[in-house]
Design brief:
This protein is an alpha+beta fold. The protein has six helices and 14 strands. The chain has two domains: 164 residues, no CATH class; 81 residues, no CATH class. InterPro entries: P-loop_NTPase (IPR027417).
Length: 256
């Protein structure tokens, strides 16, 4: 596309002090988002890419956790010097931004009555979010790194504050995030991970489109995935709903 890729780098604080040790900072940045309250350490951004909100910004305007939009622009001051974060996942010309002001994102379903000042319609500035979470220093860091960073591994659970944008790339999404959505065209992976499989794991992704022509299953899968039976709890819930429906029907007939 001829564009310079931009990566937002999350900021971290332990006991109110910024994390300066390079090895410790790298280890923290690489934590999976399910261990960091869904705030990414590295947030890659390219104009036009789909993104997903990971927290409620303004639910009354339709800006809530799971809302999908399109990234337009990152507003930031040029850093005084080139900040480099050596990571083989990003190309050499990547620009790393540590303290951006806001990310401008277009949300087509946003309920704003009027456009915001100096912005196009449906474009909303997304500011930083703060989350505090625990991480296991003993599990994450070699002893020599922890010692150099003055981290006491005897107290393994450390409280870390992360400051980052509540956005994630949304070229793909999980079955859970896709619930209640009607999508234009989708590519689905039905190869199930190890462990127990729920009926919703198959039904939900296959029912996100209106036409079979708009669905592509990306690779061969075990046919058993389509032969799942409802769990005992699901069957009991269906029976409960049937009893409620019957009682309502009887009362309505009696009133008539």
């Amino acid at each position: 596309m001829g564009l310079t890729p931009i990566v937002c780098i999350a900021q971290h604080y332990i006991q109110g002090k910024p994390v300066d040790d390079l090895r410790l900072r790298k280890a923290i940045l690489e934590l999976p988002d399910n261990k960091s309250e869904h705030l990414l350490g590295y947030l890659p951004l390219v104009p036009g890419m789909p993104v997903l909100l990971t927290e409620n910004i303004a639910t009354e305007l339709g800006l809530s956790n799971g809302t999908r939009g399109a990234f337009h622009q990152l507003v930031y001051d040029e850093p005084p010097e080139d900040v480099r974060y050596h990571d083989q996942n990003f190309p050499p010309n990547t620009k790393f931004i540590t303290q951006p002001k806001c990310a401008l994102v277009e949300f087509p379903g946003c309920k704003l009555d009027e456009k915001l000042a100096q912005l196009s319609s449906k474009i909303v500035p997304i500011a930083v979010s703060e989350q505090t979470f625990l991480f296991d220093a003993k599990e994450l860091l070699p002893e020599n790194v922890a010692k150099a960073a003055k981290i006491n591994t005897k107290t393994t659970k450390l409280t870390l504050k992360r400051i980052a944008r509540p956005l994630i790339p949304a070229y793909s999404m999980t079955t859970h995030k896709s619930q209640d959505r009607t999508l234009g065209k989708i590519i689905v992976d039905l190869v199930m991970p190890p462990g127990p499989i729920e009926l919703a794991s198959v039904y939900v992704p296959l029912s996100r489109v209106k036409r079979l022509d708009d669905l592509l299953i990306i690779r061969p899968f075990a046919f058993a995935a389509l032969q799942l039976k409802p769990s005992t709890a699901q069957i009991e819930e269906l029976k409960r709903l049937d009893r409620i429906a019957e009682n309502i029907q009887k009362r309505c007939q009696f009133i008539a």
